[in-house]
Amino acid sequence: MHEETGELKPLTIAYTPDMPYNYHAGFYYSRFLKELRDHKRIVGVRCPKCRKVYVPPRMVCRDCFVTMEDFTPVSDRGTILAFTVTNFPHTDTTTGGPKKIPYTAAFINLDGADSNIVHRLDETDEKKIEAGMRVKAVFSEKRTGDYFHDIDHFTIVRDDSG
Amino acid sequence: MNRRVAVVGFGQTHHRSKNTDCNGQELISIAVKRALESAELTMADIDAIVVGNMDHFESINYVDMWSVDGSGGYMKPIMKVTTGGTTGSAIGHAGFYHAVSGLFDTVLVIGWEQNSESDTTAAISTCFDPITEREFCAGAIGPLAAQYTAYMNKYGATEEDAALVSVRDHNNAALYNPYAHLRQTITVQDVMKSAYISYPMKLLDMCPRSDGACAVIFAEEFKARKIVDRPAWILGVGDCHILVHLADGIGLAGLPSLEIAAGQAYKTAGITEPFKQLDVAELYIPASTAGVTWMEALGLCEEGGGPRLVRSGETNMGGKLPINPSGGVLATNPIGATGLLRIGEAALQVMGKAEKKQVPGAKVAVATGFGGCFWSDVTVLSSLTHLE
Amino acid sequence: MDRVAIIGVAQTKYQRYSPSSHAELAYEVTCKALEDAGLTIEDVDNTVTVCNDFWDGRTISSMAITEATGSHRVPTTNVEGDGTYGALMGAMRVLSGLHEVTLVVAQSKASEGIPPVITNAMFDPIYERMLGLDAINSSALQMRRYMSKYGVTEEQCARVSVKNHKNARNNPYAHLPLDITVADVLKSRVLADPIKLLDASPISDGACAVIMAEESVARKRCQKPVWIKGVGHCADAYHLGDRDLAEVDALAAAAQRAYRMAGINDPTKDIDVAEVYDAFSYMELMWIEGLGFCRRGEAGAMVDRGLTEMNGPMPVNPSGGVLSAHAVQVAGLARIAEAVLQLRGDAGARQVEGARVALAHGIEGACGQGHCVYILER
Q: CB contact, 8 Å: C91 with chain B?
């Protein structure tokens, strides 16, 4: 009983299970990750019908509903379509600990790709970022087949004629 | 459509940030009791039940089975439908399909969430691809925030445009909706001064996490006419779940899934001029920015016309097409219930039972649902069995 | 009941570990089902996916297979429950008159997660979860209760396992086709007394897809449509202690609804073959009692006399059942797929001769709290 008011104070039961999963990358992501790890190369896959190139690569062309098998490298440079500088405390779903903030998530269309990717931008001052800016991938020296870390981040390039 | 189906009952809990005085089952039973009371029915009248919520918020597997004590579903047909943020609207549609199929006459649909029991952002973040997207997508907040930068870049929309949406929905909740979670009157200045949580999204641009439940009762025509004087007929439904990779949707300035789903629902319902034919809209707007960027997808304005529509005041109470008299998602967001609340609130409007929230003379309403990955559901309801 | 027919089915091989991702698995089974039905993806006008966030390890798990199942092209929804429930939603959407052809896809890759943790999560977090209950030990409670109430023996349960694993040798999709004896089952490692390893189903990766169509489309496009003549579903109480685990009232209610719709008066006479959800050996005995194939407590005697064997008067699980292949949530839809193959005469070495009426069954929740029953007919 709650001492002061004499009311019954409702309880909460804490439940913090570890729920580990080993996600199977499948054939297409496996190829994508190996290319990043072994060759610092970003690959997509091209649809035999509509010729669209998808990054990250996947089995099915969403418009044509056919299997794609033609892997093709795309540029490590691209254009920012949208971005956000995230600055509120939240949990890192991989570690279970707090996520390091602020960080900038940039949604990028790589040259040569017809679909988009998301990755970290090294700039966290929103006044210095605009949709439409050009960016380039910066790879890590140590790569393990982990997209989030093998490419360490993207950085804005100013004089980009490519 | 092989038979007519209508909403005949609706009940909801008083939504709060933390319901420490009841557990999930008890929360559900409150909403169910209120829905049954609203239609003067008992559990014996219910032929089937549909339940929905988002698993990783309460971390309960097979919620359809777990919730039997709260849903009144003992020895009844029960099914669970879950589609993320669109769960509430998807279960509404599922209830509709239960009845319109002819297999069941009176169907109880229950949406609920105890968001306070979860790490909401982390749970949402796990919806994104674990290998190529999850690391950089902060729940629902990050992606919604990023989408607005694309719209601002394309059409010159501003943060103030979004703030107007926030002011409209919050003030509606404060003035008209005693069930809403957040009931605060705010100004554009309040929104603009609130802290950035994920640029350009500020604290007052974003929906809360709420604990709450609601229940909607659907009935086929013959029974519906016996239960209420003015059933809320379901004239059209649409579901569109496009995209697997979030990044493919963010770059788009609008919401194609909403456009497609609205197209399906409008077609069946006979809506050709939405802004003229609709009297009221209960829209799933989880962030103020969405209230700017997604209006054209519903055919409510021209391309890029979101800012103009919002600034015109026509979507405020008293305007030509009031949006979210209930306060919408920005005021109340128990995620598994949120989409169903839109259907329930829209039904109350055309049934003439919306009390303080009532848009006078409302006959035709639209309710929408939204969720990852840029998915949309649309429902058109009316007190008329068909539009001219 | 208005007419809806199943016009295409497909399954992937069930195995412990599939190297495909969820999307790749779903795409494989979708393409196979379309091929079986003689359709293209353009012919499908709505879909129902069956995905579970716990088993798939992500929120909105259905998101991963949207494009792979063509669900982005048409109205779609996701049922989170056994595949039999997903198929029911698919049928309702056709019966609505708003859609003509529904594709239903169920997939599961339990090899990615930890099943006891995942099934522990179905127990109430306030009263039950900390006991460490999971699918296996809760079912062990049910098996013990059933045996002690009705005098069913471990040998009788073992006979089900022997029969089903042997039947699985005729099923190219099965995970565990085995040639075993009752003694093998009794000697196998105890998982949770009295459930032994060979009393339990494996956990498999796999997928199943079913395509259903409204009557005029089915008659026009399909050589051998299989009609859904009756369907029923029902849920029992939730807390294990609120039920008598040896009883099958919810199943009986679901079956009654399906039988009434389909005009089934005497199940053993009117039904030619049954595919039931035997996640554990004892379950097949309980379920055939609930379905009215015999009186309560008498299923053991039925199996002793070989009445449910392939060549018996009431064949049960000619596919090998769930004991031989258990992709969670898929397995109920697989029961429907197997029943369809039987009625089409396409079941190969596992064909029950002259099958015209089949029963398919799925379960939901712990110890078969929920049940869904179909009567299918050529």
A: yes
